[in-house]
Amino acid sequence: MLKNHLRLAWRSLIKRKSYSALNILGLAIGITCCLLIFQYVAFERSYDSFQQNAGRIVRLRLDAWQKGKLAWQSATVYPAIAPAMKKDFPEVENYCRLIDANFLLANDRNQNKIRETKGYFADPAALDMLGVHLVEGNPTTALDGPYKIVLSEATAKKYFGQEDPLGKKLTVKDGNHISLEVTGVFREYPANSHLLLHHLISYTTLDAERAKGGDSTRPAETAWGWYDFYAYVQLKPGTDWHQLQAKMPAFCDRYINNQDWNKKNNSRNELFLIPLTDIHLYSNYNQEAEVNGNGKSVGFLFLISFFIIVIAWVNYTNLATARSLERAKEVGVRKVLGAARRDLVLQFLSESFLLNILALAIALGAAILLTRPFNTLIGSEGSSFFSMPPAYSLLFLGLFLAGTLLSGLYPAFVLSGYHPITVLKGLFKNTAKGLILRKGLIIGQFAVSVILITGTILVYQQVQYMRRQQLGVNINQTLVLQAATSQQDSVYQNVLQPFKASLLQQPAVKSVAASSNVMGQEIYWTTGILRVGDNAKAAVTLYHLGVDYDFLPAYELSPVAGRNFSKNFSTDDKAVLINEKAADLLGFKDAAAAINGQLKRGRDTLHIVGVVPNFHQQGLQKAVDPMLILLRPEIRNYYSVKISTDHVQQTIAGIEKTWNHYFPEDPFNYFFLDESFNEQYKADTRFGAVFGLFATLAILIACFGLLGLSAYNVLQRTKEIGIRKVLGATPQNLVFLLSKEFLLLVLVSFVIAIPVTWLVMHNWLQDFAYRISIEWWVFLLGGTLALLIALTTVGFQALRAAAANPVKSLRTE
Fold it and tell me: Please, is 40 exposed, middle or buried when counting C-beta atoms within 10 Å of its C-beta (0-12, 13-18, 19+)?
């Protein structure tokens, strides 16, 4: 019986090629979109789940409140916190801490030196807790003791080639030239981790280095004020991390908030736990190890995948219904010949099943071919081959089977329910309920489409708004050279000025400035600053930027009050500049009032010589930070070289030659500042592109449904159209008559879409410190586009009907 049903279903599909092709195309597009998004969502939600005890590991987050206001939220904490939690809470099984260890590493034997950026000082427990699997070395001792380093397989190969690296030495060329013993090699760390690991250095090396200089305080173990450490806590089996979270306020009061400095300055800290597997999508705070994903965006795309495939199934229902007149006689004849309704239902469900299977086969092929370009579009580091984990495969399979069944049931019961005598006499009509259902589905389809179109416009507007905003500094034509750190301080001071002078002799070089950071980078250097004087208030946290004398002129950053640093003032080694936001936070009534004000920074008393306008150190997703600018003439982190746009490559070659002359031990690394700054907007730009792509596809699929419903309407009104033409109706009259009902449906969908779009996009825009306002014309534009697309789709069918011979129309039975 099943074989017979499938054979008949295949004949039906072949007989009606255009309808079958339209159905299969719409379903294939919807299923392909669903498969690609499922794969992407599965990858984004798989971060850190590869670790054996991932469900029992949490990372700590620190919030600082000053004067009753939230000052900052950081993914890093104090190094003393994790050991104190292990001591105080029996539910804590283990902990590990990490802090950046990005250095110029060298193998002195072969003069191979590379600036590494994905390394950390790490506790020995990090290997087990973070799933770092050694392929060489002893995991128990590899990070136990100072001056040890473990390398990834690729990193080990860079420095040692085919040699066995165990027991060999690497030298940190920055600062004091530390020698490290290679004690292990680990398997390449998975891409779906919130950390990227190329090397780990033993944690005790931090305090061992300080001890060599005579400092025995061991701050990497005991500090309650150095908040640059990632801290991970592994809980005992069965522990609910929410219950441990409830104990954090008392813990903070016991160890942090009762300290004299916090009491005096009305400052307090809060600790929060975040599960390891939530970090990538739901943690976006200061000092994140990597740029994390956006759980909200991933959720949007996941929801869109359901919308698109449901729209495709709705189309099938509408298109199948549009064929009901054509197949009514078939049903009547088969019933007269003895076919039971159950057999007819199974027959039509077999057609639905076969059509969906064909669409699925096409969609799987398309998904395999499109996985790589789709991952490129969305910036995903997932597999270049199509794959889904079992949980998502089962979810998709269940969705596919349910959708196939439900989309086929309605037309199956409608078609099988016709009375044979009525249909053979041509007297049957569709019920009002059926018409309402089909129209409701069309409204739903286009409401989703309008939401996606309008959302795409708003995402594009927000990204363009951020790109076009004035930053307060000029970052154009700026070539940034990265750190020259291999030379000792005494040697470096004698080299820096000749290096800058040599660069300025090149005709294309306009200026050279040194700084601790450049625009587009998050500043980690912060200190509590107290205003000195009668109007002094509690200390506040200011973000520090170290610059030389040439930094402000190079970036066209002119003080709004006071002056820049100057070599003419011998006291400028104790001078600072602040931005307007810092002046306001410190309690000065205006910029001019801040000049000559005194600030307490640790044991130093500093005087303010200038106030600069607020400028965007980072992208407009984040607010301007209160900033303290310190004079550091010998700073070496970055050199900003302003160049002309003529013969850029030749200019870079000349700069490299000068670099190699003065800093032969340091690799020549550079980037263009405007390109680097705009990288901050890449995720939002990609999100807009993906949003736009799926909006286009949703509209396309919805148009298939509209085409089906309009074809159904034309088929039902064939005689009416013929009579109207005989009585003198013009093609324009007929197009309007046949189109107005569908355009009304689109208008209704537009009205429904407006509040939904506003709520969704208003929520999305809250993630940006500087954002656009949602204007009324955006909704009008989105609705107009949807209306024009619908008019084109329906108009095509209406024109065909209007152009038909009325004689043939009147002969239609």
Answer: buried
